[in-house]
Structures are given as structure tokens and as C-alpha cells.
Automatic annotation (TrEMBL):
<dbReference type="InterPro" id="IPR036976">
    <property type="entry name" value="RimM_N_sf"/>
</dbReference>
<dbReference type="InterPro" id="IPR009000">
    <property type="entry name" value="Transl_B-barrel_sf"/>
</dbReference>
<keyword id="KW-0690">Ribosome biogenesis</keyword>
<dbReference type="Pfam" id="PF01782">
    <property type="entry name" value="RimM"/>
</dbReference>
<dbReference type="InterPro" id="IPR056792">
    <property type="entry name" value="PRC_RimM"/>
</dbReference>
<keyword id="KW-0698">rRNA processing</keyword>
<dbReference type="InterPro" id="IPR002676">
    <property type="entry name" value="RimM_N"/>
</dbReference>
<feature type="domain" description="Ribosome maturation factor RimM PRC barrel">
    <location>
        <begin position="113"/>
        <end position="180"/>
    </location>
</feature>
<comment type="subunit">
    <text>Binds ribosomal protein uS19.</text>
</comment>
<comment type="function">
    <text>An accessory protein needed during the final step in the assembly of 30S ribosomal subunit, possibly for assembly of the head region. Essential for efficient processing of 16S rRNA. May be needed both before and after RbfA during the maturation of 16S rRNA. It has affinity for free ribosomal 30S subunits but not for 70S ribosomes.</text>
</comment>
<protein>
    <recommendedName>
        <fullName>Ribosome maturation factor RimM</fullName>
    </recommendedName>
</protein>
<dbReference type="InterPro" id="IPR011961">
    <property type="entry name" value="RimM"/>
</dbReference>
<comment type="similarity">
    <text>Belongs to the RimM family.</text>
</comment>
<dbReference type="InterPro" id="IPR011033">
    <property type="entry name" value="PRC_barrel-like_sf"/>
</dbReference>
<feature type="domain" description="RimM N-terminal">
    <location>
        <begin position="15"/>
        <end position="101"/>
    </location>
</feature>
<keyword id="KW-0963">Cytoplasm</keyword>
<dbReference type="Pfam" id="PF24986">
    <property type="entry name" value="PRC_RimM"/>
</dbReference>
Length: 205
């Protein structure tokens, strides 16, 4: 889970994403980004919403009316979301909750500033550095500036690709799919090839 220092200097945790309307009474299925759903989605819990600015929910909060587990899925009812139409307007919204300074942090939860600047290591070799974190509806991304070449690489911040985050050692370990880093590194030689061909062409002098 990624935490963030959001508007007003508050520390917040991203705890879920609303993925689908459920039934006709305003319930929503939630994809959890927390190890303690019962402790986060208690009655009266208030969430800050990350939604597009054009959304009628922009700048508003959601308050939990009821939390259930139904057929293995987490389902939440919120105040003022009374029917399926209202629920569908909240699909893809990301839920953030204020972090209590006295609260023990959850496992695998980091603030953006803790991740920014970390070395990115693959197969024991430093291949870049984290320059920022982006929070998208589907997942978080580590934006990496590679050690070789220009540009930026978007690395999905999921355990399958980023299995290790070691804040004390100042690094993250990545196991990216083939091509994620190589494609960018190959751009420079590819761009230089036409110039080399021009120089070797007959009559180029």
C-alpha cells in the first residue's frame, strides 16, 4: 500500500478502489488495499475521494454506512448513495483515509517521499532511481529514471514486479517483465543507426 502526503499536509493512506456497483440499493464492491478492512471500513469512517475534477463527487467525502463480505467480496454501503445509479457514478474512485499519527503503520505501507529517491536494483545491478510515485485508479506506479539513457520508465508498484522495498538500504528490488527497461535502453542505438549509415554511404564525402 502507498501512503501519501496530500492536500493540507495530511498524511493519508489509500485503502481501496470502488470497482463495481452491487445490487440496487447503492452498494459497491471495493478492491482492498489494506490488511485491516474491518478496521478501516467501520460505520462512520470517512474517506477522501480521488476522482476526476469533472465528477460530481470531486472534493466530497464518503461516509460508511455498512460494510459486508458477500460471496468472498468486500461490499460497502455509503451515506447518500441510495441506488445503483448513484453507485455507478463512483466506480473507479480511490478511497483515502487520514492516517492517525499515533497509529501503527500497516505492513507494506510507504509514503511517497519515502519511495522517491530510492535506487532501483535488478539482478544485483542499479538500473535507475525512483523520481516520483503516481497514483492511478488501477494501480500505483513508480516512475523511474534509468541509469543509462534519458526518459522515464513506469513500473507497476505490485509485489510481483517490486518484491522488495528496503527503505533503510535506500533501494527497491525489481523483477520486471522482459523489455520494460531494455526498450528504453535500445532507443539510443536505434536513433544513432541512420547517422552511421549516412556516413558510410558511397559518396558521403
Amino acid at each position: 500500500m502507498v501512503a501519501s502526503e496530500r492536500a493540507g499536509g495530511r498524511n493519508q493512506l489509500r485503502v481501496g478502489r470502488l470497482v463495481k456497483a452491487h445490487g440496487l440499493k447503492g452498494a459497491l464492491k471495493v478492491e482492498l488495499y489494506t490488511d485491516d478492512p474491518a478496521g478501516r471500513f467501520f460505520v462512520g469512517a470517512a474517506f477522501t475521494l480521488q476522482v476526476p475534477e469533472a465528477s460530481p463527487w470531486h472534493g466530497k467525502t464518503l461516509v460508511v454506512r455498512e460494510y459486508r463480505v458477500m460471496n468472498g467480496s468486500s461490499v460497502v454501503f455509503f451515506d447518500d448513495v441510495e441506488d445503483r445509479t448513484a453507485a455507478e457514478g463512483l466506480v473507479k474512485a480511490i478511497l483515502w483515509i487520514d492516517q492517525d499519527d499515533a497509529e501503527e503503520p500497516e505492513d507494506d505501507a510507504w509514503y511517497d517521499h519515502q519511495l522517491t529517491g530510492l535506487e532501483v536494483v535488478r539482478d544485483g545491478v542499479v538500473v535507475g532511481r525512483v523520481v516520483r510515485v503516481e497514483h492511478l485508479p488501477a494501480q500505483d506506479l513508480l516512475i523511474v529514471r534509468p541509469s543509462a539513457g534519458d526518459g522515464e520508465i513506469m513500473v507497476p508498484f505490485v509485489s510481483a514486479i517490486v518484491p522488495t522495498v528496503d527503505i533503510a538500504a535506500g533501494r527497491v528490488v525489481v523483477t520486471p517483465p522482459a523489455g520494460l527497461f531494455e526498450d528504453l535502453a535500445d532507443e539510443a542505438p536505434a536513433a544513432a543507426a541512420p547517422q552511421a549509415a549516412d556516413q558510410d554511404a558511397p559518396g558521403a564525402d
